[in-house]
Structure formats: C-alpha cells, structure tokens
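Exercise: predict the fold of this chain.
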Amino acid sequence: MPEWTKAQRAAIETRDKNILVAAAAGSGKTAVLVERILSLILSGACDVDELLVMTFTDAAAREMRQRVEKALEKALEKARTPEEAARIERQLVLLTGASISTMHKFCLQVLRRHFEAIDLDPQFRLGGQQELALLRQDVMADLFDASYEQGTPEFLQFVSDYGDDHGDAALHALVEQLFLFSLSQPFPDAWLQKQAEAFDLPDGTHLTSTVWYPVIRSEIARTLEKASAVVDNMMQEAEAAGADAYLETFREDRVLVHSLMQALAAESWQILSDAFSTCSFSRLPTDRQLDDTVKKHLQELRKDLKTVITNLSAKYFQETEAELMDDLRRAAPDMRELVRLTLAFHAAYQQAKKERALADFSDLEHFALAVLIDHEASRTDDALPPSAIARALQEKYHEVLVDEYQDTNGVQEAIVSLVTRQEPPNLFVVGDVKQSIYRFRLADPTLFLRKYQTYPEQKETCARIDLSQNFRSRPAVLAAINYIFAQVMVPDTMELAYDDAAALHPGLPYPEAEGPTLEGPQELALLYQANRAAAEDDADTQDGGEAEASSSLEREAAYIAQRIQAFIAAGTLVYHKEDEAYHPISYRDIVILMRSVTGKAEQVLEVLRAHGIPAYAASDAGYFEAQEVRCMLSLLSILDNARQDIPLAAVLLSPIGAFSLSEMASLRLAEPEGDIFTALLTAANPEKKLSPSLQKKAEAFLGRLSHWRALAQALSVPELIWQLYRETGYYDYVGGLPGGLLKQANLRMLVDRAAEYEQTNFRGLFRFLRFVERMRAMDTDLAAARTLGESEDVVRIMTIHGSKGLEFPLVFVANLGGQFNLRDSREKVLMHRELGLGPYAVNAELAVRYATFARHAVAARIVQESKAEELRLLYVALTRARERLILVGSVKDETALAHRASVWGRAAMRKEVALPGYIPLDANSFLDWVGTALMHHPACTELRQLAGLPAVLPAFSDLQESAAWRVSCVPSTALPTSQQTQAPEDDVLATVRGGKPLPESRQRAAVETLLSWTYADHGLEKIPAKLSVSELKQRFAEREAREEGRIFLTQEKRTPWKRPRFLRESAGLTGTEFGSLMHSVMQYLDVHGDCSEQGIRSQLALMAERELISPEDVPAVRVADIAKFFASPLGNELRHARRIYRELPFSRLLPACRFYPAAEASAELLVQGIIDLLFETEEGRLILVDYKTDSDTRPEIIRSRYALQLDLYSEAVAAILGQPVAERCLYMLHDGSLLTL
C-alpha cells in the first residue's frame, strides 16, 4: 500500500486507549496491524516481546510473524545510526520468542508455565479429535449405566420424555450437545445450573416478566407489521383497480390489525390473548364488475393476510397464560435432570482426561482462565478479579492486540479482559462483524457489536476506527455489493445497520488495459426449466434434440462453464496487484463458491470437466468412502479376522487379490455352504478338482495372507500398513490411476491416522479397526486428502467458509437458491447462550409433547441469529471478487419464477433503501435476499413484469450510489449440453487409444541427449564415498591375496542380531560376542581403581549391576589376562596417564588415489574409524592401543594384517591432536599377549 489513509493512520498511531478497528473486507487490516506493531517497536515504546498478538489461525500467526520480520529487516537496511541498527537487530532476536500466536497457543503457554496453579499434570498432551470423541462416548455410556442402576424417578421420566425406541443414542447426543454448548461460557457449570433454575417459576409469575417474553413480543410485532403492510398493499391495489366493493372490508381489516398492535403495546399477555381470541375477518362482498384476474389477485392477498394472523393465533394463543406457565413448570424436572446429567458428564469426562493426562482445546481456554482468575476475590458479571499471574501479565504486555475479534467467544473474551490493563487502556482489537461466520464454532459476534456501539460513547478511554476503504475490488463490484446490503442488512433482524461506516468504498485504482477486461456490470443469472412446449419447440431446432432435463445444480454448472469458456476465448485480461500489470485470465483466477460442497462439488466437477475445464474441489468429508481407503481397511479387517465375507470378497476382487468375477463364482461354488474363507481353503486343496490356475491363485493368496497376519502380530499398525503397500504394490497402483496423487495422499493419511491412534492409550490392529468402525458409526468421517498447489491452473470449487481471507478476479456464487439449514431450531432441546434452554412440554398421560413458551422464544432467536449469519456469509462470498461477480441461482420453472418475483417485489414501491425488518427475516435462501434487493434495480425489468410491478419504480431517497447490475432469466433450452461443448480429444491420446505409433517429436534428439547424459566417473565408479578403517583393511587384504595368488576366505556378512540368552548359555559366546564383551570391559574399567584380579571382579560385578554388560557374560571375561595387562609396564603407564581417550571416533578426508590408483588425484575418500585406547603418559608421549580377538596371534601375521589400520589411526591422531604417536600396540584378547608395531 503506497500510503496510509487517514483512518488507517489513526489505527496505527492512536495510543493509550482501548481501540476497536472495524475493518471492512479488503481494507488492509492485517497491514495496519503489522504497521502498528512496528510503530510501537521502532518508536521505542516497547520491545516486540512485550506485545501480545493473538490471531484466529496458526497460518495467520505465521504470516503475522513473517510480515513483522520482513518489515524489521527493511528497517534495518534503512537504519541511520549504529544505535538504531542495534535496537532493530535486538528486536529481530526477540521476535523468535515474541507472543504472536493463536489464542490456544497463548493459553498453552500460560499453562506450561503455571501448571501448579490449578494442579495440572505438566506432561499433559492435547488429545486428537477422534480419540476424545471415543473417550466421551465411553464416559457417557458409563454415566447412563450408573444412572439406570440407580433408577431415580427423575432420570426414568427424562428417558421416557426425550428418549426413543432406538436406544439411548439420542439421549447421549443431547447431553453431549448441551455439554459442548456450555463450554463457550466462561463458567459452564454455573451457566448450566442457571438454566435449570430458570424453569422454577414461583406462583403469580407472569409471562411478561420472563426472559423469553421480549423475544416473543418482537416476533409478534414483526408479524403484525407484515400484516399491516399486506393490508396497505391490498388497499392500494383495490383503489388502483377500482374495487370499491372490497375497500370497506379492507379498511375493517386495517382496523383489526391496528387493534392487535394496540393490544401488544399494553404489555399484558391477557389483553393480547383476548384481542386475538376475539378477532375475526368479515367476508368479502361480491363484485361482479371486477375483472376476474384482479379479483383473484386481491383474494389471494387477503388469504395471505388471514393466514398470517391465523398462524400467529394458533402458535401463541391456543392456551391461556396460566396454562402456558404450567407448561414451563412441567418442563422443569426434565431440564433439572438434563442439567444434572450434563454436570455429571462434565466431571466424569474431566476425570477421565486427567487420568490419561489429556486435554482438549476447550480445556486450554478454561484452564488458562482458572489460572488468571483470583478465585478468592468476589467477581461480578462486569469484571473478573485478576490473579497475581494475570497482574504480572498485565505488567509484562505493553499492549494486547487481537485479530479477527468478531470470531471470539465468551471464554476468550474473559481471558483477554484479564491480561489487559485498565490504566492506561491497552487493548487493540481488529475485525469485521459483517464477516462473523463461525456461529457453529460458538463464536459470539455480540461481543464485537457491544464494543462497536459503546466505544464511540466512551471517548476518553475508547475509540472506534472504521476502515471502510477497500483495496481489493473494482468500484463497480463494491457499488453492487453496497446496493444489496444497504437494503437487506437491517439492525432489528440482521443485527447490524449497513450505513456509510459499514459500506465499502473504493481505494485501489485499476488502470486502463489494452484489451478486454472483467470490468462491467455484476450479474445475476436466474436459471429455470423451460415449459414442456417451449422445450419441445427448441428441441426441434437442435441436432438430435436435447437430453432429458438435468438437475438445477447441473444447469448452473453448465451455465458457469459457458461463461468461463467465453472469458477464456475472448482473451480477457485480469489485473495483478503484485506486478501492477494485466495478464490473460487463467483458470486459477476463477472460483466457484457454494454454501456447502458436500454432495454438490462432484456434480459441478463432472459438468466442468465435460466442457473441457480443469477444476478442483476440496471435499469436507468422504475419506472412509474413498475406494482406495475402503480397500485397505478391508485388507486390514481380514488380517484381524479372515472369516468376514464382505471385506474378503472386496480384497479378492481388488488388484491385491486379482481374482476375476468368474473365478470368484467358481471359488464360491467350491464350498456353497461355508463362508468365503472356507471356500478359499477348499479351492487351495489339491484334492479338489478345480482349475489349476484357480487352485494356484488361491494357494498363493492364502500364503500371502498368512505372511501378512504374522506381520500384523509383530509390527505396529502404521508399520504394517506401509509394509502392505510395499508388498502388494497397491500404493504404486493407485498412483497410476486418474487422480492418483489424491489417492496416494489418502493412503498416506491412513498411515498418519494409525500413527496418531497409536500415540494414544490404545494399541494394536484390532483396536484400530474398532476405532475406525466407531468413527464411522458416530458419523465423524474425516476430510479427504488435499493435493492442490497454489500454482495449479484449475478452477477452484470451495465453500464460502473456506474462501474467507482469499480473493479472486472472477467469482461465481452458485446454488443461490439452496435452502438455509435451520436444524438448530428444531432440535429436541434448543440452546441459547442468553435465553437458555427451549424444551417441550410433555404430557405423559396423553403421550404427546408440544412446544413451550420458552421453546418458541429460543427457536425464534436461533432462526433470527442463523439468518443474520447466513447474510454475513453472503457478504463474505460477494467480497471475494476483485473484478467481476456473477451470481447464479435456480428456480423450478416459469411459474415458480413468477411467484418468486411477486414475493421479492412486496416492498419494491418503497422509497427508503432499508427493507422492513420482517422481509430479510422471511428469506429462506441467498436468492431471496439478492432477488428482493435487485427488484428495485433498473436491470430487473423482466422480473418486475412477471410480478406485475411498474417498469420504473420510485428512486431511493437515501441512496446516492449507483450500481451496475445485469439480471438475466435463462431457460434450460438456452444452455449447452456437455456433448455440444465437449473439447475434442487430444491427438496424442487418440493415437495411443488406437494403438498406433506416435509421430517422432521434433525435440527427440535433444531429449535423448539429456536422458543419455552420463557424468564422468573420474575413476570413482567402483569406489565407495565412505569407508571405515576395518573395511579398508579387508579390501587391501583381498587385493594382496589376489596379487600373490592366495585364496582369501571371507565370512558371509550377517545381521548382528543378538542371540537369545539360552543359546548363549548352552553354546557359549561366539568370537564376535567375546570381542564385544572384552571391548566393553576395557572401555568401562576404572584404570585408576583396583586392577588386581579381585578388584577387576568387583568392577565386573558393578558393570553388571549397572547393565553395562550382561551378568551371564561375566564368567567369560578373562580376568587374569586383564590383570596381567595392567601389571605390565604399558599398563602401569596407562594407570598414571595424564589423559585417556577410549572409543575415540574420527573421520578424515584422504586422497582416494592412495588406496585406489585408478582414482584421479583430486578425488577424496571419507575414512572413519574408532580408536580403542589412546593415552598420554606423564612424559607427554602418546601411546595408541588397539584390542584384537584374533585366535592366530603369531607376531609376523598380526603385524602385516594390522599395519595399515594402525598407520591410519596414527595419522588421524597426529592430524587431529597435532602430536605424533610415540608407540603403537596391539593387545590380543585371545591370549593376553601384547605386540608393539
């Protein structure tokens, strides 16, 4: 960014205040955060390790640290004085230990340093997601077993009211769901207890005094506002149509709706209930002069009005206030029992984790909070008393900076509040509440909204800074986004007003280009299935006709493919900010966003590939369903238990077994009554009259199976899986299939999952397979591997959540008509952080259950908050676009399109830009919001015509910005089929498919030259790069034998496995074992101690006790020979030596031609060795001693055999220590003799 804006500069330089930076999409918030950090450091206000910077992800933390490091390095290059340079260098050193991390990493740091404050095992580890899920399942089962054993009436009634006929799985899920939900609260147990108490309503309590009434009141008010708008619309249309006979009835309807509004304003449920129970609609009079179409339309409008009021009455006013209160009290015992079970589960789960030294991410937050709170001081809802540790952190950190603040929850907010100071204020938070899209992770955007609304009022200690300038997108994109959200993002239902501070303002100038670009109006394409007659007419004009209508998503994919091909074919240019230049558009510049890709991405991929467009989608699940994973799991299953028909059949028919279907049929017929494994044994029996090839194949497979089952008993699960990959060749096989890289990545993930599993408290193949089964049964499938690199030239298909933080020149948002997922509002017990629990009232006598007043309130709030988040999700999707935004949605047919247009046009005649709150809340899809907003746009003429609206609508009085949109209604007949657009087959592939030889390439000679290139061997072709001294000695001995015509006998090299103890006891030690034993004794013997025979025996006993040698080997040590050695003059010099080196390793580079004459003079050979003993005498002489186990100890043989070895040892000592060896000796362990060379 060339220079900072005024708002950015304020965010960088404002000090001594709590600061909230409301940063819109693309406003450069990360750059501002980094610049603020640098400003604090370089100004000398603090060191970098005196800042606490918390981000949302590890990737963001790494990027932040790298940005700070790069900026400090640039500042170092520009340093003017040595003092300034020294300070910056110090910051670079301190940066390695700076607190720039995620919230969880910070909590982990606190716990590692202060684990004693809460009695936490310092060796605890974070458990894996699947491991913890299984542990929760086990704890839950134990809890319910104990509860059934106790059999309290409360528990049995709860089971009866909320259980089902399929076991306790639903009850387990309910308790676990409430437990996990409560963890977003700073004090989950206290919060749970409060929810149970909420239903203990004293006699005389009125509904209007409950926590749920304000929510219900708001919903009724919005519904009556909607009814009032319907009445006004009816009257306007009746007046315009001259339906005077209907007007009087419509006026009565308006009076009725207004009377209900007045009853609501009385704040008495009884008055409101009476008003609804007495309201009734009069019949419409007959008007034979009115046009039938107009009459039907007005009657439909009045029917809608009656439906709105009738539904509201049926929902809330079928019972008296006393009955509604009784329903709440009737739910109290079940809610108390649910809370009791949840609290008991929490305690048992914590104990189970403690016993295993496990923790999860939620524990990190709650444990850190426990460390930071002073538990002895009283606390209030507004302030938490900090502990001494928290106060120390407040003193340590000059400033606390939090990125993506809109995604925090109550626990994280409490932690932040405990490490920040009040005087002077030192909190700096950055975020955009319009991009808060992690409600499913229990993020609480109200924390951001509270500061957003209150900070401007607390000017002395707080400041809110709005960064609304966008440095990402073209002005036309931003204007189009503003046009939609200024209408649909309203504060009363969507939680935030889209005012000028929230709107996006252009900040990046796009230069002119010499060619076509993506600049132009943003687009909405509405796809619909053409009526049958039109489709038949169109089919007559096409060669062969059009295939049967495809699904709406496939139609959208075909439309997107058509647009992509057009952009590519036109040579469209896109602007790259990195080099500030235009480049031809490529597939990697394009993304297709959807609310969810599960079950959808594959359809889109198939259509795009059929149109010759490379694409990639990262699926969120489906790992266990991948064919290669299922095959390997089947193989592991039959290693555990071969008598499993389905896994065994899967393996036999796979490339691993390589049985054909006909062979499988013959195999099955060999033993029709038994299982497949029995049939396999029968087929391998030579006595059975089966085909020799089948018999041989069955016998071979059984042999391999037996071998693999033996491996399963000896190897860990990850080692076993890798061994199976190697021996079956299956890993290499799948690598050659289409999508082979992804398939191999999935197989590697299976190994990683097995390795993670074995890091837990469980081991073995059987338990691993049960672990996988339970994962699949719990519907916790894993994400498939991802193999896409950032530079891959493919169209990305991803979720909107996955696109957050990314940007693309061309963005398609597909499946706009997909319905919102409001499952959270339909659970058995609803949960809300403020409203608590929303249960049913259960009438055991009638065996019915129905929604309580609390449930209605909680459901209404959940629906409102869910739709507000869906709107923010749409905002995230639209703001990913840099240069062009194309929205694609589908409706069923022309009739459905006309109906949707009429719904979208309900408020099209208004002059205020913001829609009434109930309209955005009524939306059931992204398309409803977009369609409603664009109905007022000049480009929406066709839809307004379908809705019966005027071609020109009154302009908004409070929106000055103009937005360019193109709205098109696209029938299915206008879309190309994959057969029409499929790219022609590549010539090379066609030639190969036809079995013909490929034409000779023009680069053949160059390629052959490259592939046949050989490096000059410099005489080193058969010379190893590294040799030990012993190997050199052996090679020279062999060469000398050949030159002299002697036979040189070499022993076969064997793996030095340690023999079992019983063999060593019965057969004695081998020469190698005896040599190793004597070397160990000479290495560990205390030469300054008692070296007599008795003393050496005492030392041997001590070595055995310390497990330096085996107690069984002590008798084999030749104590007398060792004592004789130490009694010799050489041994005496050793006992009085100045310095002693034992088992001294060395490595030297020596000229290779010294040992191999064919080598060039410049070639070198790495020689390594270990000197048994080197010591310096009192006179300063170096004596080298090497131990040998040879049985032939004739001096002339020994000297010739080991001369080269001792020469190399002596040279190494002289080169390394700078002092020549004065004496060289060989101590023969076989007979205790000593030879000097």
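Check your answer against the key: The mean pLDDT is 88.
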